[in-house]
Write a structure and sequence with these properties.
CATH class of the largest domain: Alpha Beta
Shape: elongated
Helix content: 40-55%
Structural class: alpha+beta
Distance between the termini: 48 Å
Low-confidence stretches: none
Radius of gyration: 49 Å
Strand order of the largest sheet: 2-1-5-4-3
Strand content: 15-25%
Number of helices: 8
Order of helices and strands: HHEEEEEHHHEHEEHEEHEE
Largest sheet: 5 strands, antiparallel
Number of domains: 3
CATH architecture of the largest domain: 2-Layer Sandwich
Mean pLDDT: 83
């Protein structure tokens, strides 16, 4: 079902409800007004007559009042007035063929009643006549009022559906007109080539809902374009990084197989080939980790103490620290509990410590600390190495970036992994150079929410 049709249906339901309520209100108010005026006049005349009859008593004088009342035509063309006492009709004047009201013979109550056939409408007033209970029935022809009410009802039943049809038709046209910009927007969007995401949609001069939607789509296109460009560069960089070790491996094997060589020469060629294979496996592993990181981190989360994980990683890298005769300081202040993927977060800590150890000269210092502040866990890794050139700082988290000033080898994927791991844990990672030398990496992660017991 199209939006236009849904909007028309909603509009039809609203208009129908309003018309029904309005028509019912008009009909009830009109009916009440018509009957109210007649009923008030009937009761007033009946009360006046019963007061006079009670004072005069039964007889010609009292009955003349009833006869005079039946002759009046101010409320209708026909009247019928009766005085009834028990089962005895004392007086009956006017249109004696007119229908009579249905009454409670035992306890008649003052009020207004319709005749049995709906022709007359009676004012019923009980009173005392010569010490006996009597009832005055003052009836008037109500056919004209009933016809006017019926005419209004018929008019409403005819006019309200016509109004509904006109309103729904207008709503259908208006909905179609309102959706024209959306249809045009969909057409423009369908003409954008996936291979060329540089095109943008025109939001138009009016700042309405369609313009806001257009700007949101343009922002999405921009993000998709950046992501696509990043993936293309990533694929190109990955191909470039894999091409070099593959070329070296191929060349080495071709040279080794070109002539007969001694076992020692073959062993050296195989060792060189193994080194290149190890480098290829490292690149492939990190590329695979980057490709699967998002899905794996979202599927496997658990609560853990970040300080305990840091101590575990420190024990694992202790041989590297001792090999370079470095000093490794660990600072933790109690348990710092977070929700995380343990394998990926451990990789993040290992990568940061490995970089710190790699770029810190012998007899240098490396420190790692964990604290909690403002509902966040703070992980700091610092070293006393040469630091990062200021020109390289904005790019160190880019994939395959390796600063020219670095003396150590690498593939430029370790810090990219750290950034992705921190981002998928709703955290951040930053790097700065310290005033006293070396650099410091700071990872900020949200603390785990308290468990409800």
């Amino acid at each position: 079902m199209s939006i236009r049709l849904r909007l028309t249906i909603y509009w039809a339901l609203i208009i129908a409800a309003l018309l029904i309520v309005a028509g019912l209100a008009v009909f009830l108010l009109f009916e009440r007004q018509q009957w109210g005026a007649l009923d008030a006049a009937l009761l007033e005349e009946a009360d006046t007559a019963t007061t006079a009859i009670s004072g005069l008593g039964p007889g010609a004088a009292g009955y003349s009042i009833v006869r005079h009342l039946s002759d009046e035509r101010d409320l209708g063309p026909h009247r019928r007035v009766r005085i009834v006492s028990g089962d005895r009709v004392i007086a009956d004047f006017g249109d004696t063929a007119g229908d009579l009201p249905r009454l409670d013979a035992v306890h008649p109550q003052r009020g207004v009643r319709d005749g049995a056939r709906g022709q007359l409408r009676f004012a019923i007033v009980p009173f005392q006549l010569a010490g006996a209970a009597a009832i005055l029935e003052d009836g008037v022809d109500a056919i004209a009022i009933r016809k006017s009410i019926a005419k209004l009802r018929a008019s409403l039943l005819l006019i309200l559906p016509l109004i509904l049809i006109v309103a729904v038709s207008g709503g259908y046209l208006i909905a179609g007109r309102a959706l024209v910009p959306m249809i045009a927007l969909a057409g423009e969007l369908s003409r954008i080539d996936p291979r060329d995401l540089s095109r943008r949609l025109d939001p138009g001069p009016i700042n309405d809902e369609v313009a806001r939607l257009t700007r949101a789509i343009n922002a999405l296109l921009e993000r998709v374009e950046r992501a696509t460009d990043t993936e293309r560069r990533f694929a190109a960089d990955a191909a470039h990084e894999l091409r070099t070790p593959l070329a070296v491996l191929r060349t080495g094997l071709e040279v080794a197989l070109a002539h007969d060589r001694s076992p020692v020469a073959y062993a050296e060629a195989l060792a060189a080939a193994l080194a290149e294979v190890v480098a290829l496996c490292t690149i492939a592993d990190r590329l695979l980790t980057l490709a699967r990181l998002d899905q794996e981190a979202a599927l496997d989360r658990e609560r853990m103490d970040l300080a305990a994980l840091v101590h575990e990683v420190v024990e694992a890298v202790e041989p590297l620290v001792q090999a370079k005769q470095l000093t490794l300081a660990v600072e933790t202040a109690g348990a710092v509990v977070i929700d995380c993927n343990p394998l990926h977060l451990k990789r993040l800590v290992i990568n940061l410590l490995d970089n710190a150890i790699k770029f810190t000269p012998a007899h240098g210092q490396v420190s790692i600390g964990v604290t909690a502040r403002d509902a966040h866990a703070i992980l700091r890794v610092a070293d006393s190495g040469p630091g990062i050139p200021p020109a390289d700082l904005p790019f160190i988290f880019d994939r395959f970036f390796r600063g020219k000033a670095r003396a150590e080898s690498g593939h430029g994927l370790g810090l990219s992994l750290c950034r992705e791991i921190a981002r998928l844990h709703h955290g951040t990672i930053t790097a700065t150079n310290r005033d006293r030398g070396g650099c410091e990496f700071v990872v900020t992660l949200p603390l785990a929410s308290p468990r409800i017991s």
